[in-house]
Amino acid sequence: MYIQNGVLAIFSKIKEGFWFLKSMRVHALLALFIIGIIPLLFFSWEILNTYDSTATNQRKAEVQSQGNSLANLLVSSGYLQDSTIEEVNTEVLRLANLYEGRILVIDNKLNILKDTYGVEDGNIIISEDVIKCLKGSSSVFHNNHANNIEMTIPITQTSSKEIAGVILMNFSTKNIQNIYTILYKKTTVLFVTTIILIFIYAFFYSGVFTKPFLNLKKAIGHLTEGYMDDEVKIDGFYEVQQISISLNQMLTRIKNLENSRQEFVSNVSHELKTPLTSVKVLADSLLMQENVQPELYREFLIDIADEIERENKIINDLLSLVKLDKTASDMNITSIKINDLLELVLKRLRPIAKKNNIELIYESYRPVIAEVDEVKLSLAFSNLIENAIKYNVEDGWVRVSLNADHKYFYVKVSDSGIGIPEEAQDSIFDRFYRVDKARSRGTGGTGLGLAITKNAVHMHKGAIKVYSKENEGTTFTVRIPINYIA
């Protein structure tokens, strides 16, 4: 066990030592370097090999042509019968010197009639290639190590087409190899120089490439130090600019949320304190008076009950929000009829609507059975419909409709109310946010209702959208899957 832990610790330290292998700059540097060096290496190798093969083949073809011409000269001059013809010997020597090689003229009895080196004249040659050539199979052999090419060319009689002899040619390719060596050296110099330039370019470009990300890291570090009011602005690639824009949007939302929370603490403190203060004032007033009439007691107690109910609502909303913050494992999913659920919610809210002289309209296009948490979804629909009633105009209306397709069911809550300003529509689902704080207090609002609704809808893997214009009304659309997916 101790040994295993020690080995793991060693590997961990080694891994930490090679942290730079995870660096974006190192990866960019290697990528640019490899992309630049591989094509250059292939190109250099291809040029050298192309030259070598092309030059060698060209030399072979040239010597072959000269050898055929020499064979014709040997036949036409009768050199095979008389090898002392000076003009032919001169031509053979010229050709051998031209290609820095050696030429042997051999008859069909393997006698060497002419050796340009003057070593084998009059001797007999025993060579497999020569014998094969006399039988009609010429050969070409390239010796790379010796830098020479050996070639056999048949000497064919013009009239009978019989092979009367063989020309054995051995010529040097040193000049080709010398040029190849010069090209290799120059290519190597060019290759090394280009590698250095590519490395320098890759090094600086990788720095330019990663600089915006380093600036982004510094900006985020600056934010973590507490400078949340500073805007992140990174110049560079388009993608980095988009990241900085998204980061600024996130910061704006965080700041708005933080401001809302701070405001909520202040508001809730005030909201919780106000009913208690009112209750204390009312109770003290009763205690300070003697011989208080029963009617006055009743009036004060009604006011005290209203203040207690107001505080109770604030506390209940906070508790509801806390419960919805729990994980989806707390969902109590059952298969229920959504039509009945909405009818029950509307039944509970009709007294409030009647009190405010608001007409409640319910439209159900088809029976809908879905897998939902009845309590949480009932709370979400109650908040939406109650808000539509509270923030409506006199003699207004609220229309609730239910529809469904094969995958989702849709609940739409529309009203003829005062509407929501366009600039506030992105924030109404934020916790503790209230569009009009004075008006919300007048209706008993705490700024938690829509946050509770959104949480409940999202816990069902659904979506909620709002469409509103000031003084023209508001429509909330809720979409929830019929079959719950955990």
TrEMBL record:
Residues 267-484 form the Histidine kinase domain. It is an enzyme of class 2 (transferase). The chain crosses the membrane at residues 26-48, 189-208. Keywords: Coiled coil, Kinase, Membrane, Phosphoprotein, Transferase, Transmembrane, Transmembrane helix, Two-component regulatory system. One of its GO terms (cellular component) is plasma membrane. It catalyses: ATP + protein L-histidine = ADP + protein N-phospho-L-histidine. Its EC number is 2.7.13.3. Its main location: membrane. SMART domains: HATPase_c, HisKA. Residues 207-259 form the HAMP domain. This is histidine kinase. It comes from Anaerocolumna xylanovorans DSM 12503.
